[in-house]
Design goal:
Blueprint: H1 2-21, E1 27-30, H2 32-42, H3 44-54, H4 58-64, E2 70-80, E3 94-108, E4 113-128, E5 139-152, H5 160-228, H6 235-267, E6 275-278, H7 299-321, E7 325-338, H8 341-350, E8 354-363, H9 370-436, H10 442-476
Parallel strand pairs: 1-6
Antiparallel strand pairs: 2-3, 3-4, 4-5, 5-7, 7-8
């Protein structure tokens, strides 16, 4: 017995110490504004949207990367004692040691122009096993510098396709940037819906508890009447069965409430166990009078218009690339050679040994008909984006009208539900007094009490539906969040 007491004392002291060191759960008061701010600031869903759209930054950069400066440097040593027709005889065998360095810098432009600069130096040292009749110098250096120019003339005429591809990538990125705000708006709207779902679940739970308490009082009253012999046969079992129904509803409402609160905590990125208090206006705001919205200014329409422009740019690029490639090519070189590096470089810079080239380069690919199929594909893409734009223009007008009608309807339902709740409460109270006086059957009272409970739940639900409808209307008009919300 002493051991058991000591064990219980230790457990009690440990529980006390744990309770003292464990911080109390955080409490936060939420309204629609704070919900929108929190979800944009720290919601995992907001982070997912932002990260997804940041991935699109690569596409325009990738398109422009084709026009980067390209620097190539190569340097190395070569040992050459290989056989050739000129060195196959024993008298002409030689060993070559060469140091070779080349560097080139090229820059393509979206005008279809490519400029290049080339520099190279070859230093050679030769040793003969037996000297030939007219041996070359034992050491020599060859320097060369050149400038190249290439311009597209037919296919990709002066960079038409290049600019089209770059513009298409940039326009697509802009379209995604605009669409990002719409997706963030959906996240905010989802959080607001969950806010009202949790609030309604809380009110439902409260009303379930109140209903159970009312039935408990009625059970006690019927028991007293039964003990005095004033109740009708079956009254007590009926009310006791209904009380058990209320007990079951409390359990169900409690489960729904906890689930809704956990979902709200998760979507807002709050710590688990955070205690939430709801700040809901007591007065129901009337339907606001909003000016007509120009659908052309909606984010979804602006984004789709950019996609149409991008598709047109891609089509123009494909049509330009369908022609044979005809380029003008120009090259200018100067070189120098001497037994010493300084002498070779001096001759190079003197320009006494120039080399020029000018010509046309033609290339035509055929056989698979890929050019024509590419044009057809790009045209289909353009037609698809045009069709989507026309559909969205029609749908946007319909969606706003539907959203406004939903707001009007839910507001009317709120007002009606409020009146209905008052009538149900009055009927329940009057029938309760009538039953106490023995003038009403208990089944009628039970029906009235159940209807009163249902009207309380319906009123809370109607308030939530009206608030959500207002936010959906704002979202349809792109007024729930600004375009730059949620930027990292």
């Amino acid at each position: 017995m002493v051991k058991i007491f000591l064990t219980l004392a230790c457990v009690s002291s440990l529980n006390t110490a744990w309770a003292q060191t464990t911080p109390a759960p955080k409490t936060i008061t939420l309204n629609q504004k704070t919900v929108a701010e929190l979800v944009l600031k720290q919601s995992p869903q907001t982070a997912e949207v932002n990260l997804k759209y940041q991935q699109y930054r690569l596409d325009p950069v990738k398109a422009l990367s084709a026009y980067d400066w390209k620097l190539l440097v190569e340097s190395g040593f070569e040992y050459d004692k290989s056989a050739s027709l000129l060195t196959s005889t024993t008298s002409n065998k030689a060993k070559y040691e060469r140091y070779r360095t080349t560097a080139s810098l090229t820059k393509p432009f979206t005008t279809g122009t490519t400029l290049g600069l080339e520099l190279s130096r070859l230093s050679q040292k030769v040793e003969f096993e037996s000297l030939p009749t007219s041996p070359p110098p034992g050491e020599q250096t060859l320097d060369m510098a050149g400038f190249t120019f290439e311009q597209t003339l037919l296919g990709n005429f002066f960079g038409t396709a290049d600019r089209g591809n770059v513009n298409a990538a940039e326009l697509t990125f802009q379209a995604n940037t605009v669409a990002r705000a719409n997706e963030l708006e959906d996240v905010v709207l989802s959080a607001i819906r969950q806010f009202w779902t949790a609030y309604v679940a809380q009110e439902n739970f409260k009303e379930s508890v109140n209903s159970r308490e009312r039935y408990q009082k009625l059970v006690d009253a019927v028991k007293r009447k039964t003990s005095l012999g004033y109740s009708n046969p079956g009254d007590l079992p009926q009310i006791q069965a209904e009380f058990e129904t209320r007990v079951q509803k409390v359990k169900t409402a409690s489960t729904d409430y906890l689930k809704s609160m956990e979902n709200l905590t998760t979507i807002l990125g709050l710590d688990p166990g955070t205690e939430i208090k709801f700040e809901v206006p007591k007065e129901i705001p009337p339907v606001p009078k909003l000016p007509a919205k120009n659908v052309e200014n909606l984010r979804s329409i602006r984004s789709q218009k950019l996609k149409v422009e991008a598709a047109q740019e891609s089509l123009d690029a494909a049509e330009s690339l369908s022609y044979p490639t005809l380029n003008f090519v120009g090259k200018m070189y100067t070189s120098g050679a001497d037994e010493t590096a300084s002498g070779s470089y001096s001759e190079l810079t003197g320009g006494s040994r120039p080399k020029y080239y000018a010509g046309l380069k033609l290339q035509y690919n055929f056989g698979s008909d890929i050019q024509n199929e590419t044009i057809i594909n790009k045209k289909l893409t353009k037609d698809l984006e045009d069709t989507r734009l026309r559909r969205q223009l029609s749908e946007s007008s319909d969606l706003e009208a539907q959203a406004q009608r939903k707001v009007d309807a839910t507001y009317a339902i709120v007002l009606s539900a409020e009146k209905q709740k008052g009538f149900r409460e009055k009927a329940s109270q009057e029938l309760n007094r009538s039953y106490t006086q023995g003038r009403t059957d208990i089944s009628v009272l039970i029906t009235a009490m159940n209807n009163f409970f249902d009207s309380e739940v319906q009123y809370s639900q109607a308030v939530g539906n009206y608030a959500v409808a207002l936010n959906e209307w704002a979202a349809v008009r792109d007024e729930l969040i600004p375009d730059d919300s949620g930027k990292n």
